[in-house]
């Protein structure tokens, strides 16, 4: 039988956050371990990798639109670019509230999302000219977003 270390218990109580404590003697059974958290902030490296793969996918759209390969356009929009919106939102969340870049990035994120919806709508109508125009706008805005977000 092991006797409890009272001095260590007192030190742990003051320095660590108790997550679970016993009902009888209020002894802490589980302390929070900052190194072993289930969720940590978004990893910017992974987010930038996702953003780069979306940019690469965006550059394939003009070829598909020109060749009227509508299913390939839809596949790109829902596949490699499917997480673009959430990726941009997570990157914007990482920017300090006081930064003037945050509002610009947020506005670009919304504008890019609207352009992508426009591309999808034009693909459904099989209107290559409008789809290409929306793709060009989205690509330009995405490049601006990349420049702004990389300055932070």
Overall description:
The protein has 152 residues and is mostly helical. 66% of the residues lie in helices and 5% in strands. It has helices spanning 6-15, 44-66, 70-78, 84-93, 100-125, 128-150, and strands at 18-21, 28-31. Strands 1-2 form a two-stranded antiparallel sheet. Strand 1 and strand 2 (28-31) form a beta hairpin. Helix 2 (44-66) runs antiparallel to helix 3, helix 2 runs antiparallel to helix 4 and helix 3 (70-78) runs antiparallel to helix 5 (100-125). The longest helix is centred in the last third of the chain and has 26 residues, at 100-125. The chain is elongated and about 80 Å long. The N and C termini lie far apart (56 Å). The model has no long low-confidence stretch (mean pLDDT 88).
Task: State the share of residues found in helices, binned by percent.
Answer: 55-70%
Ends distance = 56 Å
**Average pLDDT figure:** 88
Taken as a percent bin, the fraction of beta residues is 5-15%
Tell me the layout of helices and strands.
Layout: H1 6-15, E1 18-21, E2 28-31, H2 44-66, H3 70-78, H4 84-93, H5 100-125, H6 128-150
Provide a short characterization of the protein structure.
This protein is mainly alpha-helical and 152 residues long.
């Amino acid at each position: 039988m092991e006797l409890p270390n009272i001095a260590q218990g007192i030190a742990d109580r003051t320095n660590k956050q108790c997550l679970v404590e016993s009902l009888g003697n209020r002894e802490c059974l589980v302390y929070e371990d900052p190194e072993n958290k289930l969720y940590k902030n978004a990893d910017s490296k992974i987010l930038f990798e996702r953003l780069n793969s979306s940019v690469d996918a965006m550059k394939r759209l003009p070829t598909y639109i020109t060749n009227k390969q509508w299913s390939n356009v839809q596949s790109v929009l829902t596949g490699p670019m499917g997480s673009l919106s959430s990726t941009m939102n997570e990157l914007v969340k990482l920017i300090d509230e006081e930064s003037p870049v945050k509002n610009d990035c947020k506005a670009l994120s919304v504008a890019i999302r609207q352009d992508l919806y426009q591309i999808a709508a034009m693909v459904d109508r099989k209107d290559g000219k409008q789809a290409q125009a929306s793709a060009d706008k989205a690509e330009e805005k995405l490049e601006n977003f990349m420049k702004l977000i990389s300055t932070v």
